[in-house]
Structure formats: C-alpha cells, structure tokens
Amino acid sequence: xxxxxxxxxxxxxxxxxxxxxxxxxxxxxxxxxxxxxxxxxxxxxxxxxxxxxxxxxxxxxxxxxxxxxxxxxxxxxxxxxxxxxxxxxxxxxxxxxxxxxxxxxxxxxxxxxxxxxxxxxxxxxxxxxxxxxxxxxxxxxxxxxxxxxxxxxxxxxxxxxxxxxxxxxxxxxxxxxxxxxxxxxxxxxxxxxxxxxxxxxxxxxxxxxxxxxxxxxxxxxxxxxxxxxxxxxxxxxxxxxxxxxxxxxxxxxxxxxxxxxxxxxxxxxxxxxxxxxxxxxxxxxxxxxxxxxxxxxxxxxxxxxxxxxxxx
Length: 312
Hints:
Number of strands: 0
Radius of gyration: 22 Å
Strand content: under 5%
CATH topology: Rhopdopsin 7-helix transmembrane proteins
Order of helices and strands: HHHHHHHHH
Helix content: over 70%
Distance between the termini: 41 Å
Number of helices: 9
C-alpha cells in the first residue's frame, strides 16, 4: 500500500543519513584515539588534556558504533532484538556510553575553564594547582556514574520485557519501546537528571571562562599592554562556546527524543536523531582543529587519504 511505501522510504532515508553520520563520526574519533595512543607509546605518559580526549574519543567511537547497530537492527531486522537479553544489553550499553560521552565532555570543559580562567579566589587557585591530579578521579567518577545509569537501564528494560515479548509484526520493536517509555518513566527521569547536571557544569564553565576573558581583555586595554596568551585564550574560548552551543542543542534533542519516542515517523524525532548522531563527530572535529598536534597530523594524512580514494 501507499502507507507501507512511505514508511519504507522514511526508513531507507533515515538509515542512509544516519549511517553516513555514524561512520564519519567513528572515523574522526578513531583518529583522535589512534594519535593519542601513538603519542602515549612514544612519550610513555599523557598529560591531562590527552587523557580526557582519549576517554572521550573511546566513548564516542563505541557509542556511535553501538547506537548505529541498535538503530539499524530496529529498522531492518527488529525481531533479532527480541532474543533475551539482547534488547536489554543494547539499552544498557547505550545508556552507559551516552552518559560517558556527556560527562567526559563536561570534564573537558571544566578542565579548560580551570586551566585557562584567571580568578584570585583561593579555592579556584587551589583547583588550578590540583587539577592535573583531579582529572583521573573526575574521569573515574564519570565512568562509575555512567555505569550505574547503565545498570539501572538494564534492570528497567528487563522488567519491561515481560510486557512486550508477545508483540509481533512490523513495528513491534517500536511498540515494545513505547510500552517501556510509558510504564518506566523513572528511567527517563534518571537519564534526564544526568544530562541536566552535566549541562549545568558545561554552562557554568563557559560563563566563568567568558567572564575571565572579558576581565582579562579589559585589564590589558586599561594597562595598554599586549598579552601573548590572549590569542590562545580567545581560541579556547571559541572552542568552548561552540561546544556550549552544540551541547545545548544536543540536550534539547535528548529531551525531544524522550517526548516524541512514541511517534514513529515524526519529523521532529528524525531531526533529533540526525543531530544526535552528528554531535559526536562534529564536536570531535572542532576539538581536532583546536588542538595543534591533532590538526597537524590530520592535515598530513588527508592528502594520502584523498590519493587513495582517487586511485580507487
């Protein structure tokens, strides 16, 4: 029928676009991880910024991989997800990796803020001195919190399994997800709480850094001095602000994804999925451009990649 044709066209378009975004994002984050790992082998150590980027690249790479596989199977072969505990594991791992991505991103923003911002507050000075020692603990805390969210998600979906295992036919996987969304709203509340706290951390860090930059620039103009660090300060500020804008849109998409979870084929749901798949790759590309070592390596290998593609 015409309705079935429209659904098939929608699914085909969604799979094509999201596959392109997912594999592009995986390539970009794999590049970050590989460059940092090579530097780790060469130097035998990593600085705090590299540690955060390594965790962020890994969580985004595997997050895109698992989320794409989950989306692909739910559209193309939904019955494969009914085998217990396949669906539960997918939801749990996705929750863990998504929260890890958001929290490690927030850690990166906090790290930049403390490292670059200049305040005379004694507590802030203490944080600036101790931040390098705090980074491993921040990363560990982010992963532990994400793991807790993943375990909670597994338990909730496992309980919901008994309400949906009898569903059959095309779209049954989607209907099963709808039942879980309706009966297990607390899971969305827990996930939303994690998203909101990380978003607040990013917002607060961006505002502090913006205020520090404004005050620093004002002092330089007042004293008629030129500060060589101003360009670096502004460059990082641009990166933070671009991340803040993208993080804000991503947070909005996460909320809309929950609201429109019961409306398959909705244009709003499709747009939120498109942005959520684009976010890990686009933001990681911004981080590459803002990092001299990563940018130099990328520019060095791009001609080689282009040559290989042309040869094919």
